[in-house]
Please model this.
Amino acid sequence: MTIDPTIYKQRRARLLEKMQRGIAIVPTAPEVARNGDTHYGYRYDSNFYYLSGFIEPEAVLVLVASPEKNGGERAILFCREKNPEREVWDGFRVGPDAAKEQYGFDATYPIAQLDDKLSELMGNQPVLFYPVGHDTAWDQRILKLRGEVQAKVRSGIRAPNEIHDVRTLLNEMRLFKDEHELSIMRRAAAISCQAHRRAMQFTRPGQFEYQLEAEFLHEFCRHGARHPAYPSIVAGGANACVLHYVGNNARLKDGDLLLIDAGCELDGYASDITRTFPVNGRFLPAQKDVYELVLAAQTAAIAAARPGNTWNAPHDAALRVLAQGFIDLKLCRGSVDSVLESESYKRFYMHRTGHWLGMDVHDVGDYKTGDDWRKLQTGMVFTVEPGCYIRPADDVPLALWNIGIRIEDDVAITELGNEVLTDAAPKSVADIEELILP
Ligand code: GLY
Ligand code: MN
Ligand code: MN
Model:
Protein backbone atom coordinates (compact mmCIF):
# COMPACT_ATOMS: atom_id res chain seq x y z
CA MET A 1 0.00 0.00 0.00
CA THR A 2 1.36 3.44 -0.84
CA ILE A 3 0.43 6.23 1.48
CA ASP A 4 0.85 9.97 1.20
CA PRO A 5 2.82 10.94 4.31
CA THR A 6 2.18 14.68 3.88
CA ILE A 7 -0.96 14.95 6.01
CA TYR A 8 0.55 12.92 8.83
CA LYS A 9 3.73 15.02 8.75
CA GLN A 10 1.63 18.16 8.96
CA ARG A 11 -0.29 16.79 11.96
CA ARG A 12 2.95 15.87 13.71
CA ALA A 13 4.30 19.35 13.05
CA ARG A 14 1.14 20.90 14.51
CA LEU A 15 1.34 18.76 17.63
CA LEU A 16 5.02 19.66 18.07
CA GLU A 17 4.09 23.32 17.78
CA LYS A 18 1.46 22.93 20.49
CA MET A 19 3.87 21.02 22.76
CA GLN A 20 6.52 23.76 22.43
CA ARG A 21 9.04 21.70 24.38
CA GLY A 22 9.70 18.20 25.62
CA ILE A 23 8.98 14.77 24.24
CA ALA A 24 5.76 12.93 23.36
CA ILE A 25 5.28 9.18 23.39
CA VAL A 26 2.24 7.79 21.55
CA PRO A 27 1.97 3.98 21.45
CA THR A 28 -0.44 2.14 19.18
CA ALA A 29 -2.99 -0.34 20.61
CA PRO A 30 -1.96 -3.82 21.76
CA GLU A 31 -3.25 -6.96 20.07
CA VAL A 32 -5.86 -8.63 22.25
CA ALA A 33 -6.08 -12.43 22.55
CA ARG A 34 -9.53 -13.92 22.02
CA ASN A 35 -8.63 -17.50 22.91
CA GLY A 36 -6.17 -20.22 21.81
CA ASP A 37 -4.11 -18.80 18.96
CA THR A 38 -6.71 -16.26 17.85
CA HIS A 39 -6.86 -12.54 18.40
CA TYR A 40 -9.69 -10.06 18.17
CA GLY A 41 -9.59 -8.19 14.88
CA TYR A 42 -6.75 -5.70 15.26
CA ARG A 43 -7.60 -2.00 15.54
CA TYR A 44 -4.76 0.51 15.85
CA ASP A 45 -4.93 3.31 18.40
CA SER A 46 -6.74 6.33 16.94
CA ASN A 47 -4.23 8.92 18.16
CA PHE A 48 -1.28 6.90 16.91
CA TYR A 49 -2.88 6.42 13.50
CA TYR A 50 -3.89 10.08 13.30
CA LEU A 51 -0.23 11.08 13.62
CA SER A 52 1.39 8.29 11.64
CA GLY A 53 -0.93 6.55 9.16
CA PHE A 54 0.79 3.37 10.34
CA ILE A 55 -1.45 0.34 10.88
CA GLU A 56 0.81 -2.41 12.29
CA PRO A 57 0.68 -3.44 15.96
CA GLU A 58 3.77 -3.15 18.21
CA ALA A 59 4.64 0.37 17.19
CA VAL A 60 5.32 3.59 19.08
CA LEU A 61 5.65 7.14 17.82
CA VAL A 62 8.02 9.51 19.62
CA LEU A 63 8.02 13.23 18.91
CA VAL A 64 10.79 15.48 20.17
CA ALA A 65 10.05 19.20 20.36
CA SER A 66 13.62 20.14 21.28
CA PRO A 67 15.48 18.04 18.73
CA GLU A 68 18.84 19.81 19.08
CA LYS A 69 19.39 17.38 21.98
CA ASN A 70 19.21 14.30 19.78
CA GLY A 71 20.78 15.13 16.44
CA GLY A 72 17.74 16.90 14.99
CA GLU A 73 15.38 13.93 14.91
CA ARG A 74 11.86 15.13 15.64
CA ALA A 75 9.58 12.29 14.49
CA ILE A 76 10.75 8.79 15.38
CA LEU A 77 8.91 5.52 14.80
CA PHE A 78 9.61 2.27 16.60
CA CYS A 79 8.14 -0.72 14.77
CA ARG A 80 8.52 -4.47 14.20
CA GLU A 81 11.56 -5.59 12.29
CA LYS A 82 11.29 -7.53 9.06
CA ASN A 83 11.12 -11.24 9.92
CA PRO A 84 10.84 -13.64 6.98
CA GLU A 85 9.67 -16.52 9.17
CA ARG A 86 6.96 -14.59 11.02
CA GLU A 87 5.90 -13.01 7.73
CA VAL A 88 5.15 -16.52 6.40
CA TRP A 89 2.66 -16.98 9.27
CA ASP A 90 1.29 -13.51 9.93
CA GLY A 91 1.94 -11.55 6.75
CA PHE A 92 3.94 -8.59 5.58
CA ARG A 93 5.72 -6.20 7.94
CA VAL A 94 6.96 -2.87 6.68
CA GLY A 95 10.09 -2.86 8.85
CA PRO A 96 11.98 0.22 10.09
CA ASP A 97 13.87 1.00 6.86
CA ALA A 98 10.89 1.10 4.53
CA ALA A 99 8.76 2.81 7.20
CA LYS A 100 11.21 5.71 7.32
CA GLU A 101 10.99 6.21 3.56
CA GLN A 102 7.29 5.61 3.08
CA TYR A 103 5.89 7.40 6.13
CA GLY A 104 8.28 10.32 6.25
CA PHE A 105 9.82 9.85 9.72
CA ASP A 106 13.17 11.41 10.63
CA ALA A 107 14.32 8.12 12.14
CA THR A 108 12.98 4.60 12.70
CA TYR A 109 14.20 1.85 15.02
CA PRO A 110 13.24 -1.75 15.81
CA ILE A 111 10.63 -1.88 18.57
CA ALA A 112 13.01 -4.04 20.65
CA GLN A 113 15.20 -0.95 21.13
CA LEU A 114 12.37 1.16 22.51
CA ASP A 115 13.25 1.21 26.21
CA ASP A 116 16.97 1.88 25.68
CA LYS A 117 16.30 4.62 23.17
CA LEU A 118 13.53 6.19 25.22
CA SER A 119 15.64 6.59 28.31
CA GLU A 120 18.23 8.30 26.08
CA LEU A 121 15.62 10.52 24.42
CA MET A 122 13.98 11.50 27.71
CA GLY A 123 17.26 12.77 29.13
CA ASN A 124 17.26 16.55 29.69
CA GLN A 125 13.76 16.95 28.25
CA PRO A 126 11.73 19.23 30.52
CA VAL A 127 8.30 17.81 29.76
CA LEU A 128 6.94 14.37 28.99
CA PHE A 129 3.65 14.01 27.09
CA TYR A 130 1.86 10.69 26.78
CA PRO A 131 -1.71 9.31 27.17
CA VAL A 132 -1.59 9.37 30.98
CA GLY A 133 -3.78 6.69 32.58
CA HIS A 134 -4.94 5.20 29.27
CA ASP A 135 -3.12 1.90 29.82
CA THR A 136 -1.72 0.87 33.20
CA ALA A 137 1.09 -1.16 31.63
CA TRP A 138 2.29 1.94 29.76
CA ASP A 139 1.99 4.12 32.86
CA GLN A 140 4.27 1.72 34.73
CA ARG A 141 6.71 1.35 31.85
CA ILE A 142 7.07 5.08 31.30
CA LEU A 143 7.46 5.88 34.99
CA LYS A 144 10.09 3.14 35.31
CA LEU A 145 12.02 4.60 32.36
CA ARG A 146 11.75 8.07 33.84
CA GLY A 147 13.11 6.64 37.10
CA GLU A 148 16.08 5.21 35.21
CA VAL A 149 16.81 8.61 33.69
CA GLN A 150 16.51 10.20 37.12
CA ALA A 151 19.15 7.80 38.44
CA LYS A 152 21.63 9.36 35.99
CA VAL A 153 21.47 12.69 37.80
CA ARG A 154 25.12 12.47 38.88
CA SER A 155 26.14 12.30 35.22
CA GLY A 156 24.40 15.64 34.79
CA ILE A 157 21.31 14.23 33.07
CA ARG A 158 17.90 15.38 34.23
CA ALA A 159 14.58 13.55 33.86
CA PRO A 160 11.41 15.35 32.70
CA ASN A 161 9.95 17.34 35.57
CA GLU A 162 6.45 17.65 34.20
CA ILE A 163 4.13 15.00 32.82
CA HIS A 164 1.17 16.05 30.66
CA ASP A 165 -1.59 14.08 28.99
CA VAL A 166 -0.85 14.37 25.26
CA ARG A 167 -4.55 13.77 24.59
CA THR A 168 -5.43 17.26 25.82
CA LEU A 169 -3.65 18.58 22.73
CA LEU A 170 -4.64 15.77 20.37
CA ASN A 171 -8.34 15.76 21.26
CA GLU A 172 -8.63 19.39 20.26
CA MET A 173 -6.81 18.75 16.96
CA ARG A 174 -8.99 15.73 16.17
CA LEU A 175 -12.20 17.66 16.87
CA PHE A 176 -11.67 19.69 13.68
CA LYS A 177 -11.76 17.42 10.65
CA ASP A 178 -9.54 18.35 7.70
CA GLU A 179 -10.51 17.77 4.05
CA HIS A 180 -8.78 14.39 4.00
CA GLU A 181 -10.82 13.24 6.98
CA LEU A 182 -14.06 14.68 5.65
CA SER A 183 -13.61 12.87 2.35
CA ILE A 184 -13.19 9.53 4.17
CA MET A 185 -16.16 10.27 6.42
CA ARG A 186 -18.34 11.10 3.39
CA ARG A 187 -17.43 7.77 1.86
CA ALA A 188 -18.01 5.84 5.13
CA ALA A 189 -21.39 7.58 5.39
CA ALA A 190 -22.28 6.71 1.79
CA ILE A 191 -21.51 3.01 2.35
CA SER A 192 -23.61 2.96 5.51
CA CYS A 193 -26.50 4.70 3.73
CA GLN A 194 -26.34 2.08 1.03
CA ALA A 195 -26.47 -0.62 3.72
CA HIS A 196 -29.55 0.96 5.35
CA ARG A 197 -31.27 1.04 1.96
CA ARG A 198 -30.40 -2.60 1.42
CA ALA A 199 -31.76 -3.56 4.86
CA MET A 200 -35.04 -1.78 4.17
CA GLN A 201 -35.40 -3.71 0.92
CA PHE A 202 -34.61 -7.06 2.56
CA THR A 203 -36.81 -6.74 5.66
CA ARG A 204 -39.86 -9.04 5.84
CA PRO A 205 -42.01 -10.26 8.76
CA GLY A 206 -40.71 -13.59 10.13
CA GLN A 207 -37.02 -12.86 9.60
CA PHE A 208 -34.59 -12.75 12.50
CA GLU A 209 -32.90 -9.51 13.49
CA TYR A 210 -29.48 -11.05 12.83
CA GLN A 211 -30.45 -11.67 9.21
CA LEU A 212 -30.68 -7.92 8.73
CA GLU A 213 -27.41 -7.48 10.61
CA ALA A 214 -25.90 -9.80 8.00
CA GLU A 215 -27.07 -7.51 5.20
CA PHE A 216 -25.13 -4.66 6.83
CA LEU A 217 -21.95 -6.69 7.17
CA HIS A 218 -22.31 -7.75 3.54
CA GLU A 219 -22.71 -4.20 2.26
CA PHE A 220 -19.94 -2.76 4.48
CA CYS A 221 -17.41 -5.41 3.59
CA ARG A 222 -18.04 -5.44 -0.13
CA HIS A 223 -17.17 -1.75 -0.22
CA GLY A 224 -13.93 -2.21 1.68
CA ALA A 225 -15.26 -1.16 5.09
CA ARG A 226 -14.30 -4.38 6.82
CA HIS A 227 -15.83 -3.66 10.23
CA PRO A 228 -18.79 -1.91 11.81
CA ALA A 229 -17.77 1.19 13.78
CA TYR A 230 -19.69 -0.21 16.81
CA PRO A 231 -21.89 -3.26 17.46
CA SER A 232 -24.97 -3.01 15.21
CA ILE A 233 -28.30 -2.56 16.99
CA VAL A 234 -31.07 -4.37 15.09
CA ALA A 235 -34.11 -4.06 17.31
CA GLY A 236 -37.63 -5.12 16.34
CA GLY A 237 -40.74 -4.00 18.28
CA ALA A 238 -40.20 -3.59 22.03
CA ASN A 239 -36.47 -4.31 21.68
CA ALA A 240 -36.10 -0.79 20.24
CA CYS A 241 -36.85 0.57 23.73
CA VAL A 242 -33.59 -0.97 24.98
CA LEU A 243 -31.08 1.71 24.04
CA HIS A 244 -28.03 -0.55 23.72
CA TYR A 245 -29.84 -3.70 22.50
CA VAL A 246 -27.31 -5.91 20.72
CA GLY A 247 -28.89 -9.38 21.16
CA ASN A 248 -30.20 -9.12 17.58
CA ASN A 249 -31.76 -12.61 17.82
CA ALA A 250 -35.53 -12.04 17.87
CA ARG A 251 -38.01 -12.71 15.09
CA LEU A 252 -39.49 -9.67 13.34
CA LYS A 253 -43.26 -9.34 13.66
CA ASP A 254 -45.77 -8.05 11.16
CA GLY A 255 -47.00 -4.67 12.41
CA ASP A 256 -43.85 -3.88 14.43
CA LEU A 257 -41.28 -1.21 13.76
CA LEU A 258 -37.61 -2.08 13.30
CA LEU A 259 -34.90 0.24 14.63
CA ILE A 260 -31.45 -0.25 13.13
CA ASP A 261 -28.46 1.68 14.45
CA ALA A 262 -25.51 0.59 12.31
CA GLY A 263 -22.56 2.23 10.59
CA CYS A 264 -19.28 1.10 9.13
CA GLU A 265 -15.74 2.15 9.93
CA LEU A 266 -13.72 3.02 6.84
CA ASP A 267 -9.97 3.71 6.95
CA GLY A 268 -10.22 4.45 10.67
CA TYR A 269 -13.31 6.72 10.49
CA ALA A 270 -16.77 5.96 11.83
CA SER A 271 -20.23 6.53 10.48
CA ASP A 272 -23.23 6.25 12.80
CA ILE A 273 -26.74 6.03 11.36
CA THR A 274 -30.11 5.02 12.81
CA ARG A 275 -33.24 4.44 10.81
CA THR A 276 -36.58 3.14 12.06
CA PHE A 277 -39.13 1.66 9.67
CA PRO A 278 -42.12 -0.72 9.56
CA VAL A 279 -41.27 -4.43 9.21
CA ASN A 280 -44.13 -4.83 6.71
CA GLY A 281 -43.44 -1.60 4.85
CA ARG A 282 -46.41 0.48 6.08
CA PHE A 283 -46.52 2.64 9.24
CA LEU A 284 -49.59 2.19 11.49
CA PRO A 285 -51.25 5.53 12.38
CA ALA A 286 -49.86 5.62 15.95
CA GLN A 287 -46.37 4.65 14.75
CA LYS A 288 -46.55 7.35 12.11
CA ASP A 289 -47.53 9.99 14.69
CA VAL A 290 -44.50 9.23 16.84
CA TYR A 291 -42.23 8.88 13.81
CA GLU A 292 -43.25 12.27 12.38
CA LEU A 293 -42.62 13.82 15.79
CA VAL A 294 -39.08 12.43 16.05
CA LEU A 295 -38.40 13.48 12.46
CA ALA A 296 -39.62 17.01 13.20
CA ALA A 297 -37.36 17.11 16.25
CA GLN A 298 -34.43 15.98 14.13
CA THR A 299 -35.19 18.55 11.42
CA ALA A 300 -35.23 21.31 14.05
CA ALA A 301 -31.98 20.03 15.57
CA ILE A 302 -30.21 19.91 12.20
CA ALA A 303 -31.40 23.46 11.43
CA ALA A 304 -29.76 24.57 14.69
CA ALA A 305 -26.44 22.95 13.73
CA ARG A 306 -24.57 25.94 12.32
CA PRO A 307 -21.48 27.97 13.13
CA GLY A 308 -21.88 30.32 16.05
CA ASN A 309 -24.63 28.30 17.74
CA THR A 310 -23.55 26.35 20.79
CA TRP A 311 -23.06 22.59 20.96
CA ASN A 312 -26.27 22.42 22.97
CA ALA A 313 -28.45 24.32 20.47
CA PRO A 314 -29.46 21.23 18.43
CA HIS A 315 -30.33 19.35 21.65
CA ASP A 316 -32.45 22.26 22.91
CA ALA A 317 -34.21 22.54 19.55
CA ALA A 318 -35.02 18.82 19.51
CA LEU A 319 -36.24 18.89 23.12
CA ARG A 320 -38.67 21.74 22.47
CA VAL A 321 -40.30 19.87 19.56
CA LEU A 322 -40.39 16.59 21.49
CA ALA A 323 -41.87 18.19 24.60
CA GLN A 324 -44.78 19.67 22.60
CA GLY A 325 -45.24 16.33 20.83
CA PHE A 326 -45.26 14.37 24.08
CA ILE A 327 -48.01 16.68 25.36
CA ASP A 328 -50.03 16.22 22.14
CA LEU A 329 -49.63 12.44 22.35
CA LYS A 330 -50.77 12.46 26.01
CA LEU A 331 -47.43 11.13 27.21
CA CYS A 332 -46.65 14.25 29.26
CA ARG A 333 -48.86 16.83 30.94
CA GLY A 334 -48.47 20.58 31.37
CA SER A 335 -46.87 23.24 29.20
CA VAL A 336 -43.75 22.84 27.05
CA ASP A 337 -41.80 24.92 29.55
CA SER A 338 -42.96 22.86 32.51
CA VAL A 339 -42.17 19.58 30.69
CA LEU A 340 -38.68 20.92 29.95
CA GLU A 341 -38.24 22.34 33.43
CA SER A 342 -39.39 19.20 35.27
CA GLU A 343 -37.58 16.96 32.75
CA SER A 344 -40.66 14.73 32.59
CA TYR A 345 -39.74 14.15 28.90
CA LYS A 346 -36.83 12.01 30.14
CA ARG A 347 -39.18 9.10 30.70
CA PHE A 348 -39.49 8.85 26.88
CA TYR A 349 -36.29 10.55 25.71
CA MET A 350 -33.44 9.88 28.10
CA HIS A 351 -30.30 10.43 26.01
CA ARG A 352 -28.66 13.46 24.48
CA THR A 353 -29.17 14.45 20.85
CA GLY A 354 -25.65 13.65 19.66
CA HIS A 355 -21.93 13.28 20.14
CA TRP A 356 -18.76 14.15 18.26
CA LEU A 357 -18.00 11.69 15.47
CA GLY A 358 -14.62 10.87 13.93
CA MET A 359 -12.10 8.10 14.31
CA ASP A 360 -14.02 6.95 17.38
CA VAL A 361 -17.79 6.69 17.14
CA HIS A 362 -18.08 8.74 20.32
CA ASP A 363 -15.18 10.89 19.29
CA VAL A 364 -12.82 12.93 21.40
CA GLY A 365 -13.14 16.64 22.09
CA ASP A 366 -14.53 18.82 24.86
CA TYR A 367 -18.19 19.81 24.79
CA LYS A 368 -17.69 22.79 27.06
CA THR A 369 -15.20 25.63 27.38
CA GLY A 370 -15.08 26.30 31.09
CA ASP A 371 -18.72 26.24 32.21
CA ASP A 372 -20.18 27.11 28.80
CA TRP A 373 -21.20 24.88 25.92
CA ARG A 374 -18.67 25.44 23.17
CA LYS A 375 -19.52 27.19 19.92
CA LEU A 376 -19.96 25.10 16.78
CA GLN A 377 -17.23 25.72 14.21
CA THR A 378 -16.42 24.61 10.67
CA GLY A 379 -14.92 21.13 10.57
CA MET A 380 -16.71 19.76 13.62
CA VAL A 381 -18.65 16.56 12.88
CA PHE A 382 -21.32 15.08 15.13
CA THR A 383 -24.48 13.02 15.15
CA VAL A 384 -28.01 14.34 15.45
CA GLU A 385 -30.11 11.54 16.91
CA PRO A 386 -33.32 12.33 18.74
CA GLY A 387 -35.63 9.47 19.66
CA CYS A 388 -38.67 8.37 21.60
CA TYR A 389 -38.97 5.14 23.57
CA ILE A 390 -42.36 4.26 25.03
CA ARG A 391 -42.60 1.42 27.52
CA PRO A 392 -45.99 -0.04 28.50
CA ALA A 393 -47.60 1.70 31.47
CA ASP A 394 -51.13 2.36 32.73
CA ASP A 395 -50.87 6.09 32.10
CA VAL A 396 -49.64 5.68 28.50
CA PRO A 397 -52.11 5.34 25.57
CA LEU A 398 -52.21 1.65 24.57
CA ALA A 399 -51.58 2.31 20.86
CA LEU A 400 -48.16 3.77 21.73
CA TRP A 401 -46.88 0.87 23.85
CA ASN A 402 -43.51 -0.53 22.83
CA ILE A 403 -42.85 2.01 20.10
CA GLY A 404 -39.14 2.82 19.98
CA ILE A 405 -37.91 5.27 17.36
CA ARG A 406 -34.58 6.98 16.73
CA ILE A 407 -33.44 8.84 13.63
CA GLU A 408 -29.71 9.51 13.49
CA ASP A 409 -27.62 11.37 10.91
CA ASP A 410 -24.01 12.51 10.71
CA VAL A 411 -23.58 16.26 10.30
CA ALA A 412 -20.50 18.34 9.48
CA ILE A 413 -20.46 22.05 10.30
CA THR A 414 -19.60 24.15 7.22
CA GLU A 415 -19.01 27.86 6.78
CA LEU A 416 -22.61 28.47 5.78
CA GLY A 417 -24.39 25.93 7.97
CA ASN A 418 -24.00 22.21 7.76
CA GLU A 419 -23.62 19.23 5.48
CA VAL A 420 -25.62 16.09 6.30
CA LEU A 421 -23.23 13.29 5.33
CA THR A 422 -25.92 10.61 5.59
CA ASP A 423 -28.67 12.14 3.47
CA ALA A 424 -28.81 9.13 1.16
CA ALA A 425 -30.53 6.93 3.75
CA PRO A 426 -34.29 7.53 3.35
CA LYS A 427 -36.12 8.95 6.36
CA SER A 428 -39.40 10.55 5.29
CA VAL A 429 -42.43 8.28 5.72
CA ALA A 430 -43.10 8.42 1.99
CA ASP A 431 -39.51 7.60 0.97
CA ILE A 432 -39.28 4.70 3.43
CA GLU A 433 -42.60 3.16 2.42
CA GLU A 434 -41.76 3.55 -1.26
CA LEU A 435 -38.39 1.81 -0.84
CA ILE A 436 -39.74 -1.14 1.17
CA LEU A 437 -42.94 -1.78 -0.81
CA PRO A 438 -42.74 0.12 -4.12
N1 GLY B 1 -24.37 3.90 17.90
C1 GLY B 1 -24.02 4.56 19.06
C2 GLY B 1 -24.67 5.86 19.17
O1 GLY B 1 -25.59 6.13 18.43
O2 GLY B 1 -24.26 6.70 19.91
MN1 MN C 1 -24.66 7.99 17.79
MN1 MN D 1 -25.90 5.23 16.54
